Amino acid sequence: RIDKVIARRVWDSRGNPTVEVEVQTTGGRVGRAIAPAGASRGTREAIDMRDGGKALGGLDVGQAVANVAERIAPALSGLDATDQKAADDAILALDPSALKDRLGGNATVAASLAVAHAGAAAKGEPLWQHLADLSGATPSIPLPEIQIFGGGAHAGRRVDIQDFMVMVPGASTFGEALEITSEVYRAAGSLMERKGRLAGVADEGGWWPVFDHNEEALETLVKAIELAGETPGDRVVISLDIAASEFGKDGRYRLALEDRELGRDEMIRLLGDWLDAYPIASIEDPLAEDDPDGMRAFTAAYGDRVQIIGDDYLVTNSALVRDAATDRACNAVLIKVNQVGTLSEALDCLTTASDRGFGTIVSARSGETEDVSISHMAVGFGARQLKVGSFTRSERMAKWNECLRIGDAIGQDRFVAGAPLADTAWA
Ligand code: PGA
Ligand code: ZN
């Protein structure tokens, strides 16, 4: 049973305050989790409750921490830590709002995940096993989606596109996917250095994007894959997060780097040209969250050959996933627990998505910590992919390394290689 729930302020990878929750059981077990924080946030996602004011850029979390101590803790006290649904229902009863604006999504997500950790500890199981018990899924090791260049809101908008990533569906194990990605990352760094454009890394650890136009990033990525000894489009493919809500509104898309504004159809054509020219297997938020017509048109045109992920467009919301499946606005969903607020709601969204043939990608936020819950989630929920940012900085590497450990426990042959290319497209 849950005995004590403690909240404290800790710090994330951007040096910003965030919420940590610790759940103690009567049996002396402890579960702990930390809320992540996004920078390119969807308008329909759960809010991050921040104190405002002058101190710490207005980002302090005193109220969210108090909400855990004063409201969530009494509601969870005495509940069975292994009963995640009951715990999340207790949190939801306190704040049934879609945006979790009474408690703060940062308070609810840390509390919900801490209960899961405590539940696993109470059962004497690793978290991934406990989550597999909850989801009913066969545990599997996800295909990693790893950033090589950061951009958009994660790199001072140096380029418009947010994530230039690679996936290695041709790898035979998770470990091999990491090894090949590491070579690509290293190669991309030397290419930047040769051009005199090495300028450190962006928020998620990808190389800082010193490029004259968005295509130059894609061309450099292709060259990096080649320099790493791979044939682009063979074992290694490109994945993009356009994060179009950051520069698109009312069907107009403003590409600041190229100083031009595109209409919806031109934007779709531009992305289509990229799909023709580069080995891109997956594309996230190609159009803005307020542009369902654009998402539907894009999916009608390209959904049979590429994975189209809704992130800001779906905000880990089951109802939005149901609608998107019905009107074919994309064919995969990004799962971020803090977009919706509790683990049970995130699992419900993931199940809703996979029941409809959608690809499922568990994802970190740009503001992260040493918390590795999402690695366990991806495995225990049987998600196809895991997106964590780049291949540097320990708040990222911790998640990749945790998957290696879990792989040793469940068998490296449980790696879901190739899945995003094989099954997610609309046939
Ligand atoms: P965020 O970005 O965590 O800054 O919102 C991640 C993403 O868009 O996938
Ligand atoms: Zn995104």
Structure notes:
The C terminus is likely disordered. Helix 1 crosses helix 3, helix 5 packs across helix 6 and helix 12 packs parallel to helix 13. It is built from 14 helices and 14 strands. The protein has an eight-stranded mixed beta barrel, surrounded by six helices. Strands 1-2-3 form a three-stranded antiparallel β-sheet. It is of the alpha/beta class. It starts with a strand and ends with a helix. 2-phosphoglycolic acid binds next to loops. GO terms for molecular function: magnesium ion binding; phosphopyruvate hydratase activity. It is found in: Cytoplasm; Secreted; Cell surface. Its EC number is 4.2.1.11. Pathway: Carbohydrate degradation; glycolysis; pyruvate from D-glyceraldehyde 3-phosphate: step 4/5.
Number of helices: 14
Unreliable stretches: 421-427
H-E string: EEEHHHHEEHHEEEEHEHEHEHHEHEHH
Largest sheet: 8 strands, mixed, barrel
- The percentage helix is 25-40%
Radius of gyration: 20 Å
Strand % is 15-25%
Pathway: Carbohydrate degradation; glycolysis; pyruvate from D-glyceraldehyde 3-phosphate: step 4/5
Function: Catalyzes the reversible conversion of 2-phosphoglycerate (2-PG) into phosphoenolpyruvate (PEP). It is essential for the degradation of carbohydrates via glycolysis.
Subcellular location: Cytoplasm; Secreted; Cell surface
Keywords: Cytoplasm, Glycolysis, Lyase, Magnesium, Metal-binding, Pyruvate, Secreted
